[in-house]
Write a structure and sequence with these properties.
Elements: E1 5-13, H1 17-29, E2 35-39, H2 47-50, H3 62-65, H4 81-94, E3 101-103, E4 106-113, E5 118-125, E6 128-139, E7 144-149, E8 163-165, E9 180-184, H5 188-198, E10 203-208, E11 214-217, H6 222-231, H7 233-257, H8 259-273, H9 280-283, E12 296-299, H10 302-309, E13 312-316, E14 319-323, E15 326-329, E16 334-336, E17 339-342, E18 346-348, E19 355-358, E20 361-362, E21 370-371, E22 375-376, E23 382-384, H11 393-414, E24 418-421, E25 430-432, H12 439-442, E26 450-452, H13 463-472, E27 480-483
Parallel strand pairs: 1-2, 1-6, 2-3, 4-19, 6-23, 8-17, 9-10, 9-17, 10-13, 11-12
Antiparallel strand pairs: 4-5, 5-6, 7-18, 14-15, 15-16, 19-20, 21-22, 24-27, 25-26
Helix pairs in contact: 1-11, 5-10, 6-7, 7-8, 11-13
């Protein structure tokens, strides 16, 4: 039985990095509009509150991962997880956004009514069902499944007498001091964990099926720090932000247009930092091209330093089976372990698993197309945030917030109640929304909306292009359709 119902102008789902940013944009532009944030968990921060494994950090610089409206002022550009979490929470507290969050509220179903021009959202709060209505639904749920990570089936893992842990659920009391640790995986999480664990473990082995591109980058941005001291944080921040955007864009374009050149540069960087004679081509020479998957970052070359000092090593092989004391490989080699970390990837979940219904019709996500990578065809008054895969997430999140403000102002100025992208061009070919070859994407991409072969349905991966399109482009572009709520006829007089 539903115990409460209320209406807000804008309902934001998710109180992570994107959700707090979205609330800031809405609150700043429309101080008299009502909004609420629903957060399924019990804390602000999303990913940065969930992941608590040793060494957890950003894999991009904080001058682009930080909000456009709030400068990052710490010396470290590649920041640790607790610092990022503090930044998000301080942003929410300073603006009073934290007072608009309802924790432990998981949105499970949203139903749109064209007649009423509003969403009805069903929410689970403990054992109590709650219902809210809203004129505009703004999803900031990311695309990770928070309650489960991905772990392949490993033969004999039940025989292992040590500790097995997934990074997504790191136990607070797990002590790896003096232990032999095997980290299974070669993605960003494994590359972060290995040097962090090597400080106290007897030895850490990164066990990978195939190599990943790993590039070193200074943990501090010397130019940013110098500019901040010279002209102040407020003026230095946009300069540093654009510097890093342009450098990152140039790096990405070089990788896509001249992959051999980029492979050579990354390989030479690894050779410089690894011990003489190290088998780079076995352990650090991927089969795929740069940026077919996201490039892994080693701040100040920490992974290479751990290998050079002997605290860590890399083994490229496949698991045959687990033994009571470790892992037996297909090559016949065995790795002894006290702790095995399954850094084997994440699971994706579109829109937090929430069901969408439009005028009584269930929305099948894979049948929809993503308009400007932030709205869905046939779904009115609905916006979602998915960041870039080749740059910082928040760059796109901020632009989605800015565009949403522009869109709401456009509706207000012209007296419209509804807007919806119309997918009525048969010449547009459908493509995956996440054009990315990472395993966690390939496992779940069919559960997500599609993108299209041309603008405005094409997946955008250029921040500069999106600045022009989302910040300054036309709202009424012929694809986005606007309407007013249907007039309700007065009741007929009753016959005598």
């Amino acid at each position: 039985m539903t115990t409460s119902t209320e209406h807000v102008d804008v309902l934001i789902i998710g109180a992570g990095l994107s959700g707090i940013g979205a609330a800031h944009h809405i609150q700043s532009a429309f101080p008299h509009r009502t909004y609420t944030i629903l957060e399924a968990r019990d804390a602000i921060g999303g990913t940065w509150d969930l992941f608590r494994y040793p060494g957890v950090r950003s894999d991009s610089d904080m001058h682009t991962l930080g909000y456009r409206f709030r400068p990052w002022t710490q010396a470290k550009a590649i920041a640790d997880g607790p610092s990022i979490l503090d930044y998000v929470r301080e942003t929410a507290a300073e603006a009073g956004i934290d007072r608009q969050i309802r924790f432990g509220h998981r949105a499970v179903r949203a139903q749109w009514s064209t007649v009423d021009a509003r969403w009805t959202v069903d929410v689970v709060h403990g054992d109590e069902p709650v219902r809210l209505t809203t004129s505009f639904l703004y999803l900031c749920t990311g695309y990770y499944r928070y309650d489960a990570g991905y772990v392949p089936e490993f033969p004999g893992i039940e025989r292992f007498t040590g500790t097995v842990v997934h990074p997504q659920f790191w136990p607070e009391d797990l002590d790896h001091t003096g232990k032999k640790v095997v980290v299974i995986g070669s993605g960003a999480t494994a590359v972060t964990l290995v040097p962090a664990l090597a400080d106290r473990a007897t030895h850490v082995t990164m066990l990978q099926r195939s190599p990943t591109y790993i590039a070193s980058r200074p943990g501090e941005d010397a130019i940013a720090n110098r500019l901040r001291r010279t002209i102040g944080a407020r003026r230095a921040y946009p300069v540093t932000r654009w510097k890093n955007v342009l450098l990152g864009t140039a790096f990405y374009r070089l990788a896509r247009s001249r992959p051999r050149v980029m492979k050579s540069l990354i390989r030479k960087g690894a050779i410089r930092q690894l011990p003489p004679g190290y088998d780079v081509d076995t352990h650090f020479n991927p089969r795929y091209q740069p940026w077919d998957q996201r490039l892994c970052l080693a701040p100040d070359g920490d992974l290479f330093t751990a290998i050079r000092r002997g605290g860590a090593s890399v083994v490229t092989d496949r698991i045959a089976e687990f033994t009571p004391t470790g892992v037996c490989l297909e090559s016949g080699a065995e790795l002894d372990a006290d702790i095995v970390v399954t850094a084997t990837g994440l699971r994706l979940l579109a829109f937090g698993g929430m069901d969408l219904v439009v005028d009584g019709r269930e929305v099948t996500l894979r049948d929809t197309m993503a308009y400007k990578s932030m709205m869905l065809s046939g779904v009115p008054n609905f916006v979602f945030t998915i960041g870039y895969t080749n740059a910082s997430w928040t760059l796109k999140a901020d632009l989605v917030g800015e565009y949403t403000v522009r869109l709401l102002r456009y509706l207000d100025a012209r007296g419209y109640d509804q807007c919806v992208p119309a997918d009525d061009d048969p010449t547009v070919n459908r493509q995956p929304l996440l054009d990315f070859q990472a395993g966690y994407v390939l496992r779940s991409v069919d559960e997500f909306p599609r993108s299209g072969s041309r603008t405005p349905w094409r997946l955008g991966m250029s921040y500069a292009h999106d600045v022009l399109n989302l910040r300054y482009g036309r709202i009424d572009d012929g694809v986005l359709r606007f309407s007013r709520r249907p007039a309700v006829a007065p009741p007929m007089p009753r016959a005598a």
